[in-house]
Amino acid sequence: MEQLSNLVISDHELEAIRATLSKLLHDTSASTVMLLDKSGQVISNFGNGVRRNVTSLGALLAGAFSSSRQVAELLGEKDFRTIFQQGMHENIYTTLVEEQWLLVIVFDKLTHIGLVKVLSKKASDELVRVLARVKADTSRRKTSVINVEFRSSVEDTIDLLFRD
Asked: Is pLDDT of 104 > 60?
């Protein structure tokens, strides 16, 4: 399976992704909306992400999603397509887009999960169309585009998780 880190997103497609995420953020009153590849690289994010370390958040959410797929397998399910994490103040809804990307919505208690589910499905459908164009354009394919800052952030996050 091709990973997004092997693809380059043009300005036109990136703008379409941003428009979709911005609309989702507005319509759900979310605090943050992110599109990640399954490795956790942040493709785009909107909202109050400036107060968060979105690179670490993306890596950890991708890891949590990967873990949930293993749990699904143990339960005899093919996979789990969504994860809902409920906190005291904020909730996180993560859904799989195609088989390569994760759409993440961080929202507070005032936003109903049903609204988030419906609007994330609509946004996912739009993202599928945009990301299909990215995958189809082989002229922009790269052998490796993993960002040095991303790699360093993931290593730091892993070190923090397993430090004594």
From this structure: yes
